[in-house]
Amino acid sequence: MKNLISMRDLKPEEIYHLLSVTEKIEKGEIIPDMQRKLAALLFFEPSTRTMFSFDTAMKRMNGDTIIMSGTKNTSAKKGESFADTLQTIAQYSDIIIMRSPTEGAARFASEVVEIPIVNAGDGANQHPTQALLDLYSILKTQGTLKNLKIGLAGDLRFGRTIHSLTQAMSLFGAEFKFISPSFLQMPDYIKDDLTLQNVKFDEIREMNGNISDLDILYVTRIQKERFADPEDYEKVKGSYVLNRDMLSHVKDNFKVLHPLPRVDEINTDVDNTKYAYYFSQAKNGVYTRQAIISILLGEV
Amino acid sequence: MDQMKTIKVNAIKNGTVIDHITAGKVLKVIEILNLADDSSVMIGMNLNSKKIGKKDILKIENRELSKNEVNSIALIAPKATLIIIKDFEVDSKASLELQEHIEEHIICPNPQCITNLESINSKFRIIQNTDVTARCVYCEKKYLLDDLKIKI
User: Fold this and answer.
1) Which residues of chain A make contact with B139, given a CB cutoff of 8 A?
2) Is the ipTM of this complex over 0.85?
3) Is residue A1 part of a domain?
4) Could you point out which of A47, A120, A149, B136 has its C-alpha 20 to 30 Å from the C-alpha of A126?
5) Counted domains in chain A
6) Which domain does A268 fall in, by range?
Protein backbone atom coordinates (compact mmCIF):
# COMPACT_ATOMS: atom_id res chain seq x y z
CA MET A 1 0.00 0.00 0.00
CA LYS A 2 1.65 3.23 -1.17
CA ASN A 3 -1.23 5.66 -0.54
CA LEU A 4 -4.66 5.55 1.07
CA ILE A 5 -7.05 7.29 -1.29
CA SER A 6 -10.27 5.28 -1.52
CA MET A 7 -11.84 2.19 0.01
CA ARG A 8 -12.31 0.98 -3.56
CA ASP A 9 -8.56 0.40 -3.78
CA LEU A 10 -8.41 -1.96 -0.80
CA LYS A 11 -8.76 -5.73 -0.97
CA PRO A 12 -10.23 -7.57 2.05
CA GLU A 13 -6.79 -9.00 2.97
CA GLU A 14 -5.28 -5.49 3.05
CA ILE A 15 -8.11 -4.33 5.30
CA TYR A 16 -7.58 -7.28 7.66
CA HIS A 17 -3.83 -6.58 7.77
CA LEU A 18 -4.44 -2.93 8.63
CA LEU A 19 -6.96 -3.82 11.34
CA SER A 20 -4.58 -6.39 12.80
CA VAL A 21 -1.81 -3.76 13.00
CA THR A 22 -4.32 -1.38 14.62
CA GLU A 23 -5.16 -3.99 17.25
CA LYS A 24 -1.48 -4.63 17.99
CA ILE A 25 -0.85 -0.90 18.38
CA GLU A 26 -3.80 -0.59 20.76
CA LYS A 27 -2.56 -3.52 22.85
CA GLY A 28 0.99 -2.18 22.89
CA GLU A 29 2.34 -5.20 20.99
CA ILE A 30 3.69 -2.88 18.29
CA ILE A 31 5.13 0.51 19.23
CA PRO A 32 5.91 2.33 15.96
CA ASP A 33 8.66 4.92 16.21
CA MET A 34 8.15 8.02 14.08
CA GLN A 35 10.99 10.04 15.57
CA ARG A 36 12.34 12.44 12.92
CA LYS A 37 9.24 11.77 10.75
CA LEU A 38 7.11 14.71 9.75
CA ALA A 39 3.50 14.55 8.57
CA ALA A 40 2.06 17.52 6.66
CA LEU A 41 -1.61 17.95 7.53
CA LEU A 42 -3.15 19.93 4.67
CA PHE A 43 -6.75 20.73 5.53
CA PHE A 44 -8.16 22.88 2.73
CA GLU A 45 -11.55 22.48 4.40
CA PRO A 46 -12.20 23.06 8.11
CA SER A 47 -11.98 20.06 10.40
CA THR A 48 -11.10 19.78 14.03
CA ARG A 49 -11.77 16.18 14.91
CA THR A 50 -10.08 14.42 12.02
CA MET A 51 -7.14 16.82 12.09
CA PHE A 52 -6.65 16.39 15.86
CA SER A 53 -6.98 12.64 15.48
CA PHE A 54 -4.13 12.53 12.92
CA ASP A 55 -2.07 15.01 14.93
CA THR A 56 -2.52 12.89 18.05
CA ALA A 57 -1.70 9.68 16.15
CA MET A 58 1.56 11.15 14.86
CA LYS A 59 2.60 12.63 18.21
CA ARG A 60 1.81 9.41 20.11
CA MET A 61 4.43 7.77 17.89
CA ASN A 62 7.02 10.49 18.65
CA GLY A 63 6.53 12.00 15.20
CA ASP A 64 5.85 15.62 14.38
CA THR A 65 3.38 17.53 12.22
CA ILE A 66 3.13 20.70 10.21
CA ILE A 67 -0.42 21.95 9.82
CA MET A 68 -2.17 24.06 7.21
CA SER A 69 -5.83 24.73 7.85
CA GLY A 70 -8.10 26.56 5.39
CA THR A 71 -6.90 28.36 2.27
CA LYS A 72 -6.41 31.77 3.87
CA ASN A 73 -2.77 32.89 3.80
CA THR A 74 -1.76 30.06 1.48
CA SER A 75 -0.04 30.17 -1.87
CA ALA A 76 -3.33 29.12 -3.49
CA LYS A 77 -4.53 32.63 -2.72
CA LYS A 78 -1.53 33.96 -4.65
CA GLY A 79 -2.47 31.87 -7.68
CA GLU A 80 -0.11 28.94 -7.18
CA SER A 81 -1.37 25.72 -8.76
CA PHE A 82 -2.47 22.88 -6.53
CA ALA A 83 0.23 20.65 -8.05
CA ASP A 84 2.98 23.15 -7.18
CA THR A 85 1.71 23.52 -3.59
CA LEU A 86 1.83 19.74 -3.19
CA GLN A 87 5.28 19.36 -4.71
CA THR A 88 6.66 22.02 -2.39
CA ILE A 89 5.10 20.55 0.77
CA ALA A 90 6.41 17.12 -0.27
CA GLN A 91 9.98 18.49 -0.04
CA TYR A 92 9.45 19.23 3.66
CA SER A 93 7.58 16.16 4.85
CA ASP A 94 7.50 12.35 4.83
CA ILE A 95 3.74 11.93 4.35
CA ILE A 96 0.87 14.22 3.34
CA ILE A 97 -2.52 13.88 5.00
CA MET A 98 -5.07 16.02 3.20
CA ARG A 99 -8.69 17.07 3.24
CA SER A 100 -10.21 19.01 0.37
CA PRO A 101 -13.69 20.06 -0.74
CA THR A 102 -12.63 19.04 -4.27
CA GLU A 103 -13.52 15.47 -5.23
CA GLY A 104 -10.53 13.52 -6.50
CA ALA A 105 -7.99 15.92 -4.95
CA ALA A 106 -6.20 13.18 -3.02
CA ARG A 107 -6.03 10.88 -6.06
CA PHE A 108 -4.50 13.70 -8.07
CA ALA A 109 -2.04 14.45 -5.26
CA SER A 110 -0.89 10.82 -5.30
CA GLU A 111 -0.03 11.22 -8.98
CA VAL A 112 1.93 14.42 -8.42
CA VAL A 113 4.19 13.58 -5.46
CA GLU A 114 6.38 10.62 -4.53
CA ILE A 115 5.66 10.56 -0.78
CA PRO A 116 2.54 8.75 0.55
CA ILE A 117 -0.82 10.54 0.48
CA VAL A 118 -3.64 9.87 2.92
CA ASN A 119 -7.10 11.06 1.94
CA ALA A 120 -8.73 12.63 5.00
CA GLY A 121 -11.89 13.42 3.01
CA ASP A 122 -12.44 14.74 -0.53
CA GLY A 123 -15.77 16.53 -0.96
CA ALA A 124 -18.71 14.12 -0.89
CA ASN A 125 -16.53 11.34 -2.28
CA GLN A 126 -14.36 9.31 0.12
CA HIS A 127 -13.21 9.33 3.73
CA PRO A 128 -11.30 6.06 3.95
CA THR A 129 -9.62 6.56 7.33
CA GLN A 130 -13.05 7.07 8.91
CA ALA A 131 -14.31 3.92 7.17
CA LEU A 132 -11.31 1.95 8.49
CA LEU A 133 -11.78 3.16 12.06
CA ASP A 134 -15.46 2.25 11.72
CA LEU A 135 -14.48 -1.24 10.53
CA TYR A 136 -12.10 -1.57 13.46
CA SER A 137 -14.90 -0.55 15.83
CA ILE A 138 -17.26 -3.07 14.23
CA LEU A 139 -14.66 -5.84 14.39
CA LYS A 140 -13.87 -5.06 18.05
CA THR A 141 -17.51 -5.06 19.14
CA GLN A 142 -18.81 -7.92 16.98
CA GLY A 143 -15.74 -10.18 16.82
CA THR A 144 -16.17 -10.43 13.05
CA LEU A 145 -16.82 -8.31 9.98
CA LYS A 146 -18.70 -11.06 8.18
CA ASN A 147 -22.43 -11.31 7.49
CA LEU A 148 -23.55 -8.48 9.78
CA LYS A 149 -26.79 -6.56 9.54
CA ILE A 150 -26.06 -2.86 9.50
CA GLY A 151 -28.46 0.08 9.71
CA LEU A 152 -27.31 3.43 8.35
CA ALA A 153 -29.45 6.36 9.44
CA GLY A 154 -29.62 10.08 8.68
CA ASP A 155 -28.06 11.87 5.72
CA LEU A 156 -27.09 9.05 3.38
CA ARG A 157 -26.89 11.26 0.31
CA PHE A 158 -24.08 13.65 1.19
CA GLY A 159 -22.28 11.60 3.84
CA ARG A 160 -18.93 10.48 2.43
CA THR A 161 -18.36 8.47 5.63
CA ILE A 162 -21.49 6.50 4.87
CA HIS A 163 -20.44 5.87 1.27
CA SER A 164 -16.97 4.60 2.19
CA LEU A 165 -18.34 2.40 4.97
CA THR A 166 -21.04 0.88 2.75
CA GLN A 167 -18.47 -0.01 0.09
CA ALA A 168 -16.16 -1.52 2.69
CA MET A 169 -18.80 -3.59 4.51
CA SER A 170 -20.21 -4.89 1.25
CA LEU A 171 -16.92 -6.78 0.81
CA PHE A 172 -17.77 -8.82 3.90
CA GLY A 173 -21.30 -9.98 3.10
CA ALA A 174 -23.15 -7.28 5.05
CA GLU A 175 -26.88 -6.67 4.71
CA PHE A 176 -28.03 -3.05 4.96
CA LYS A 177 -31.01 -1.02 6.10
CA PHE A 178 -30.85 2.53 4.76
CA ILE A 179 -32.94 4.77 7.03
CA SER A 180 -33.37 8.32 5.71
CA PRO A 181 -35.84 10.90 4.33
CA SER A 182 -36.40 10.26 0.62
CA PHE A 183 -34.36 13.21 -0.62
CA LEU A 184 -31.38 12.26 1.56
CA GLN A 185 -31.39 8.63 0.50
CA MET A 186 -28.37 6.63 -0.65
CA PRO A 187 -27.25 7.79 -4.12
CA ASP A 188 -28.08 5.58 -7.09
CA TYR A 189 -24.43 5.04 -8.03
CA ILE A 190 -23.80 3.35 -4.67
CA LYS A 191 -27.02 1.30 -4.83
CA ASP A 192 -26.17 0.19 -8.38
CA ASP A 193 -22.82 -1.11 -7.17
CA LEU A 194 -24.53 -3.03 -4.34
CA THR A 195 -27.03 -4.56 -6.75
CA LEU A 196 -24.20 -5.68 -9.05
CA GLN A 197 -22.48 -7.32 -6.06
CA ASN A 198 -25.76 -9.00 -4.97
CA VAL A 199 -25.68 -7.14 -1.66
CA LYS A 200 -29.09 -7.02 0.07
CA PHE A 201 -30.44 -3.66 1.18
CA ASP A 202 -33.76 -2.09 2.22
CA GLU A 203 -34.70 1.57 2.17
CA ILE A 204 -36.75 2.69 5.16
CA ARG A 205 -38.16 6.06 6.27
CA GLU A 206 -38.48 5.48 10.05
CA MET A 207 -35.87 4.48 12.61
CA ASN A 208 -38.33 3.40 15.32
CA GLY A 209 -39.39 -0.25 15.02
CA ASN A 210 -36.70 -1.05 12.47
CA ILE A 211 -33.61 -1.63 14.58
CA SER A 212 -34.37 -4.79 16.58
CA ASP A 213 -32.65 -7.12 14.08
CA LEU A 214 -29.52 -5.00 13.60
CA ASP A 215 -25.98 -5.70 14.82
CA ILE A 216 -24.83 -2.12 14.19
CA LEU A 217 -26.73 1.16 13.86
CA TYR A 218 -24.59 3.89 12.32
CA VAL A 219 -26.20 7.28 12.90
CA THR A 220 -25.27 10.49 11.09
CA ARG A 221 -26.49 14.02 11.50
CA ILE A 222 -29.18 15.45 9.26
CA GLN A 223 -28.15 19.02 8.59
CA LYS A 224 -30.93 21.57 8.74
CA GLU A 225 -29.22 23.51 5.91
CA ARG A 226 -30.00 20.66 3.50
CA PHE A 227 -33.70 21.46 3.64
CA ALA A 228 -35.12 24.19 1.40
CA ASP A 229 -38.06 24.67 3.76
CA PRO A 230 -37.28 24.67 7.54
CA GLU A 231 -40.77 23.27 8.18
CA ASP A 232 -39.86 20.12 6.24
CA TYR A 233 -36.89 19.66 8.56
CA GLU A 234 -39.08 20.00 11.65
CA LYS A 235 -41.48 17.41 10.20
CA VAL A 236 -38.88 14.68 9.62
CA LYS A 237 -36.18 15.24 12.22
CA GLY A 238 -38.00 13.28 14.95
CA SER A 239 -37.99 10.15 12.77
CA TYR A 240 -34.21 10.02 12.90
CA VAL A 241 -33.51 10.63 16.57
CA LEU A 242 -32.45 7.62 18.63
CA ASN A 243 -33.48 7.50 22.28
CA ARG A 244 -33.21 4.98 25.11
CA ASP A 245 -36.85 3.78 24.78
CA MET A 246 -36.13 2.57 21.26
CA LEU A 247 -33.45 0.20 22.55
CA SER A 248 -35.75 -2.12 24.53
CA HIS A 249 -35.85 -4.86 21.88
CA VAL A 250 -32.40 -4.64 20.32
CA LYS A 251 -29.98 -7.58 20.11
CA ASP A 252 -27.50 -8.13 22.93
CA ASN A 253 -24.51 -7.47 20.67
CA PHE A 254 -26.12 -4.31 19.21
CA LYS A 255 -23.91 -1.19 19.10
CA VAL A 256 -24.59 2.42 18.07
CA LEU A 257 -21.85 4.16 16.10
CA HIS A 258 -21.60 7.81 15.05
CA PRO A 259 -18.73 9.63 13.30
CA LEU A 260 -19.30 12.70 15.56
CA PRO A 261 -19.96 15.56 16.06
CA ARG A 262 -23.40 14.67 17.37
CA VAL A 263 -26.05 17.35 17.60
CA ASP A 264 -29.39 15.88 18.66
CA GLU A 265 -29.75 12.73 16.56
CA ILE A 266 -28.77 10.51 19.48
CA ASN A 267 -30.42 11.49 22.72
CA THR A 268 -27.92 11.76 25.61
CA ASP A 269 -29.96 9.16 27.53
CA VAL A 270 -28.41 6.57 25.17
CA ASP A 271 -24.87 7.48 26.26
CA ASN A 272 -24.94 5.45 29.48
CA THR A 273 -26.34 2.30 27.90
CA LYS A 274 -24.11 -0.62 26.90
CA TYR A 275 -25.09 0.00 23.29
CA ALA A 276 -23.42 3.42 22.96
CA TYR A 277 -20.01 3.06 21.34
CA TYR A 278 -19.37 6.42 19.63
CA PHE A 279 -16.79 7.82 22.03
CA SER A 280 -14.79 4.58 22.04
CA GLN A 281 -15.08 4.73 18.25
CA ALA A 282 -13.34 8.14 18.28
CA LYS A 283 -10.52 6.68 20.38
CA ASN A 284 -10.19 3.81 17.92
CA GLY A 285 -9.62 6.48 15.26
CA VAL A 286 -6.25 7.37 16.77
CA TYR A 287 -5.05 3.72 16.78
CA THR A 288 -6.31 3.21 13.23
CA ARG A 289 -4.53 6.34 11.98
CA GLN A 290 -1.35 5.29 13.77
CA ALA A 291 -1.55 2.00 11.87
CA ILE A 292 -2.22 3.70 8.53
CA ILE A 293 0.73 6.10 8.90
CA SER A 294 3.05 3.32 10.11
CA ILE A 295 2.18 1.02 7.20
CA LEU A 296 2.54 3.77 4.60
CA LEU A 297 5.92 4.82 5.98
CA GLY A 298 7.11 1.21 6.08
CA GLU A 299 7.60 1.22 9.84
CA VAL A 300 5.62 -1.98 10.54
CA MET B 1 -28.72 -5.33 -50.63
CA ASP B 2 -25.15 -4.18 -51.38
CA GLN B 3 -26.47 -2.45 -54.50
CA MET B 4 -29.12 -0.67 -52.42
CA LYS B 5 -26.45 0.56 -50.02
CA THR B 6 -24.40 1.88 -52.92
CA ILE B 7 -27.37 3.80 -54.16
CA LYS B 8 -28.10 5.26 -50.74
CA VAL B 9 -24.53 6.25 -49.91
CA ASN B 10 -22.14 6.70 -52.80
CA ALA B 11 -18.67 5.15 -52.87
CA ILE B 12 -15.59 7.29 -52.27
CA LYS B 13 -12.24 7.12 -54.08
CA ASN B 14 -9.91 7.73 -51.13
CA GLY B 15 -10.74 8.30 -47.49
CA THR B 16 -12.46 6.71 -44.51
CA VAL B 17 -15.77 4.95 -44.06
CA ILE B 18 -17.17 4.55 -40.57
CA ASP B 19 -19.80 1.82 -40.76
CA HIS B 20 -22.08 0.36 -38.09
CA ILE B 21 -22.36 3.61 -36.18
CA THR B 22 -25.09 3.26 -33.56
CA ALA B 23 -28.26 4.65 -35.21
CA GLY B 24 -28.74 8.32 -34.37
CA LYS B 25 -25.10 8.96 -33.48
CA VAL B 26 -23.67 10.00 -36.83
CA LEU B 27 -24.15 13.72 -36.19
CA LYS B 28 -22.23 13.35 -32.95
CA VAL B 29 -19.40 11.65 -34.88
CA ILE B 30 -19.37 14.56 -37.34
CA GLU B 31 -19.13 16.95 -34.40
CA ILE B 32 -16.20 15.03 -32.92
CA LEU B 33 -14.37 15.00 -36.26
CA ASN B 34 -15.05 18.69 -36.77
CA LEU B 35 -16.06 18.08 -40.38
CA ALA B 36 -17.24 21.58 -41.07
CA ASP B 37 -14.17 22.11 -43.29
CA ASP B 38 -13.64 21.27 -46.94
CA SER B 39 -14.04 17.48 -46.63
CA SER B 40 -16.67 15.84 -48.82
CA VAL B 41 -18.90 13.90 -46.44
CA MET B 42 -21.69 11.42 -47.14
CA ILE B 43 -24.08 10.41 -44.44
CA GLY B 44 -26.47 7.48 -44.20
CA MET B 45 -28.91 7.31 -41.32
CA ASN B 46 -31.15 4.57 -39.96
CA LEU B 47 -30.06 1.98 -42.52
CA ASN B 48 -30.89 -1.68 -41.92
CA SER B 49 -27.96 -3.67 -40.56
CA LYS B 50 -27.66 -7.42 -40.02
CA LYS B 51 -25.02 -6.74 -37.37
CA ILE B 52 -26.68 -4.07 -35.20
CA GLY B 53 -30.29 -3.74 -36.43
CA LYS B 54 -30.30 -0.07 -37.42
CA LYS B 55 -27.13 1.81 -38.19
CA ASP B 56 -25.70 5.09 -39.41
CA ILE B 57 -22.79 5.29 -41.84
CA LEU B 58 -20.33 8.08 -42.62
CA LYS B 59 -17.99 8.39 -45.59
CA ILE B 60 -15.31 11.06 -45.57
CA GLU B 61 -13.33 11.81 -48.70
CA ASN B 62 -9.53 12.26 -48.43
CA ARG B 63 -9.32 11.99 -44.68
CA GLU B 64 -7.68 9.51 -42.32
CA LEU B 65 -8.47 9.61 -38.62
CA SER B 66 -6.02 10.09 -35.78
CA LYS B 67 -5.82 7.58 -32.93
CA ASN B 68 -7.40 10.19 -30.65
CA GLU B 69 -10.34 10.59 -33.01
CA VAL B 70 -10.81 6.82 -33.29
CA ASN B 71 -10.82 6.47 -29.49
CA SER B 72 -13.42 9.21 -29.14
CA ILE B 73 -15.70 7.65 -31.75
CA ALA B 74 -15.45 4.26 -30.00
CA LEU B 75 -17.00 5.91 -26.94
CA ILE B 76 -20.22 6.85 -28.72
CA ALA B 77 -20.32 4.10 -31.36
CA PRO B 78 -18.57 1.11 -29.79
CA LYS B 79 -19.74 -1.31 -32.51
CA ALA B 80 -18.52 0.79 -35.43
CA THR B 81 -16.24 -0.51 -38.16
CA LEU B 82 -13.45 1.64 -39.56
CA ILE B 83 -12.69 1.12 -43.26
CA ILE B 84 -9.83 2.82 -45.08
CA ILE B 85 -10.50 3.22 -48.81
CA LYS B 86 -7.71 3.64 -51.35
CA ASP B 87 -8.57 4.01 -55.03
CA PHE B 88 -12.13 2.70 -54.50
CA GLU B 89 -10.78 -0.49 -52.85
CA VAL B 90 -10.91 -1.48 -49.19
CA ASP B 91 -7.36 -1.06 -47.93
CA SER B 92 -8.05 -2.05 -44.31
CA LYS B 93 -11.02 -2.80 -42.11
CA ALA B 94 -11.13 -2.95 -38.31
CA SER B 95 -13.75 -3.00 -35.57
CA LEU B 96 -13.45 -0.19 -33.08
CA GLU B 97 -12.61 -1.29 -29.59
CA LEU B 98 -13.75 0.45 -26.47
CA GLN B 99 -10.65 0.81 -24.31
CA GLU B 100 -10.84 0.08 -20.60
CA HIS B 101 -9.06 3.29 -19.66
CA ILE B 102 -9.91 6.54 -21.39
CA GLU B 103 -7.87 9.68 -20.87
CA GLU B 104 -8.80 13.19 -21.97
CA HIS B 105 -11.81 12.33 -24.19
CA ILE B 106 -14.57 12.61 -21.57
CA ILE B 107 -15.57 15.70 -19.64
CA CYS B 108 -16.58 14.74 -16.10
CA PRO B 109 -20.11 16.07 -15.46
CA ASN B 110 -19.41 16.51 -11.73
CA PRO B 111 -18.70 20.24 -11.13
CA GLN B 112 -16.89 19.36 -7.88
CA CYS B 113 -14.49 16.99 -9.66
CA ILE B 114 -10.86 18.12 -9.67
CA THR B 115 -10.68 17.68 -13.46
CA ASN B 116 -13.11 20.61 -13.75
CA LEU B 117 -11.28 22.80 -11.23
CA GLU B 118 -7.60 22.29 -12.09
CA SER B 119 -6.05 22.08 -15.52
CA ILE B 120 -5.64 18.31 -15.60
CA ASN B 121 -6.85 15.64 -18.00
CA SER B 122 -9.85 13.54 -17.11
CA LYS B 123 -9.43 9.78 -16.68
CA PHE B 124 -12.29 7.31 -16.88
CA ARG B 125 -12.55 3.56 -16.50
CA ILE B 126 -15.09 1.91 -18.77
CA ILE B 127 -17.30 -0.75 -17.22
CA GLN B 128 -19.24 -2.99 -19.60
CA ASN B 129 -22.18 -4.73 -17.95
CA THR B 130 -25.77 -4.57 -19.23
CA ASP B 131 -25.14 -0.87 -19.80
CA VAL B 132 -21.82 0.66 -20.71
CA THR B 133 -20.79 3.03 -17.94
CA ALA B 134 -17.73 5.12 -17.23
CA ARG B 135 -16.34 5.83 -13.76
CA CYS B 136 -14.24 8.93 -13.16
CA VAL B 137 -10.89 7.85 -11.68
CA TYR B 138 -10.77 11.03 -9.58
CA CYS B 139 -14.25 11.76 -8.16
CA GLU B 140 -15.36 8.09 -8.62
CA LYS B 141 -18.82 9.05 -9.93
CA LYS B 142 -20.23 6.64 -12.47
CA TYR B 143 -22.17 7.70 -15.58
CA LEU B 144 -23.90 6.05 -18.49
CA LEU B 145 -21.71 6.49 -21.53
CA ASP B 146 -24.63 8.03 -23.42
CA ASP B 147 -24.91 10.82 -20.84
CA LEU B 148 -21.31 11.98 -21.19
CA LYS B 149 -19.86 14.81 -23.20
CA ILE B 150 -17.08 13.56 -25.45
CA LYS B 151 -14.19 15.74 -26.61
CA ILE B 152 -11.05 15.14 -28.62
Assistant:
1) 103-104, 122-123, 125
2) yes
3) no
4) A149
5) 2
6) 128-282
